[in-house]
Amino acid sequence: MERNGLATVAVTLATAAIVSLILYLSTVPTTLKVAVTAGDSPDTRLMAAFAQALGRERSAVRLKLVHTPGPADSASRLDDQSVDLAVVRMDIATPASGQSVAVLRRYQPVFMAPASGGVQRIADLRGRAIGVTGGPPGNLRLLATILEQYEIPADAVSMLALEEREIAPALREGRIAALLFVGAAGSPKAAETVEAFREGAGGPPIFLPIREAGAIGVRNKAVEPGEIVRGAFGGDPPKPTETLPTISVSYRLLAHRQLDDDTVSDLTRLLFTMRGQLAAVVASAQSLEAPSADKGAALAAHPGTAAYLNGEEKTFFERYGDWIYLSLFGISFAGSGAAALASRHASRVRARTMQGLERLLELLRGAREASSEATLGDLQQEADSILADTLHRATRDKIDAAGLAAYRLGMDQLAYAIDERRQVLTRGGGSERTSVSPRTLRQAGH
């Protein structure tokens, strides 16, 4: 009974240890590497602020920023799994192994042309010089993508990358006939660009719609349809005077498709729940969007992100229930095995313990047949040795009550037999046999 109790305690302690280990492992922070473009871009500032917030809140997920030359390099690092996450502008590079966690910001390209320049639609740009804001090669490739929809070859136009300060002089000097602004339509940068264009053109620009945005999106999955709402650039009358169809390119936080779903789900939840405090540090956090959770979307969400967006995040026991069940099963199996081994060991110990009782029975037979006082003395001496060993074992709880009672009876019978045989030998009746009456061993035990 005591052994069963000890086994129960052992199994309980082992179970508690397993559960404690699972709880500990579930709270150890997971650090993810995120590739971001080096420099002072809005995305780099946002990821840095997010990483600091996660550390400050001691969240289960942490970020380590890995700076890269540009979005294309960030995408390649995600594909080769040297990072877990990457911030990528989707029209520049789309990693094959990346899935969306969040849309960090969107750019809505818009064409501007002077009112007196003879350019009323995109098709009129053939053979003209077009300025492109921002200067990165990605914007020039984006212009080529748009012109391709209108069957205007890239070599049929001149493309000129311009900084904001260069826009007005380029218009005044006739070096460009139109400008493609690539940025967020409602940003201060957009308003400043429109003002620089008005200054160089001598009047407000004409905004050219990209009416075939949907068709461009079909041909290039990294480009999505979008719109520039009426008055996005401010002014009175509003600029533009009506909502314009255009395309949209996005900067996204991508996770490797093999990254654990639960980890990505936690990351997504933390990003969107911290959006308010991040916006107080980095204004671009206000532009955070959830990606499409539809399985057929061109830029589909990571399964972990989709689980968060659809309210299907796993609970603690859903995440670790299988491990707990398997641990309990393993402990139960090990406990049964340990109990069986303990039982076999106990049986062997009892067998060794009761060997002295078997020897007492042999001594009992010897006492009844002893032919001399010396033989009885030897028997008595061996019996005393067995008694001493028995008492020693009893003090170490190696003999239970039933075993001790058997020893007492055996010692009692042996003592009585020796005493009786000694009397027979004293009377000279060495061959006489007498019966033995049972006595208790309380006196011998004392």
What's the structural blueprint in terms of helices and strands?
Elements: H1 2-27, E1 30-37, H2 42-56, E2 61-68, H3 71-79, E3 85-89, E4 98-107, E5 110-113, E6 129-133, H4 137-149, E7 158-162, H5 164-172, E8 178-181, H6 188-201, E9 206-208, H7 213-219, E10 224-228, E11 244-256, H8 261-273, H9 275-279, H10 303-309, H11 316-353, H12 355-369, H13 373-395, H14 401-426, H15 442-445
Helix pairs in contact: 1-11, 5-6, 8-10, 12-13, 12-14, 13-14
Description:
- With 446 residues, this protein is α/β, with parallel strands linked by helices.
- The chain has a domain at 354-445.
- 50% of the residues lie in helices and 16% in strands.
- It is built from 15 helices and eleven strands.
- It has helices spanning 2-27, 42-56, 71-79, 137-149, 164-172, 188-201, 213-219, 261-273, 275-279, 303-309, 316-353, 355-369, 373-395, 401-426, 442-445; strands at residues 30-37, 61-68, 85-89, 98-107, 110-113, 129-133, 158-162, 178-181, 206-208, 224-228, 244-256.
- Strands 1, 2, 3, 4, 10 and 11 form a six-stranded mixed beta sheet that branches.
- Strand 6, helix 4 (137-149) and strand 7 form a beta-alpha-beta unit.
- Helix 12 runs parallel beside helix 14.
- The chain is rod-shaped.
- The two termini are 29 Å apart.
- 31% of the residues are buried.
- Residues 430-446 have low confidence and may be disordered.
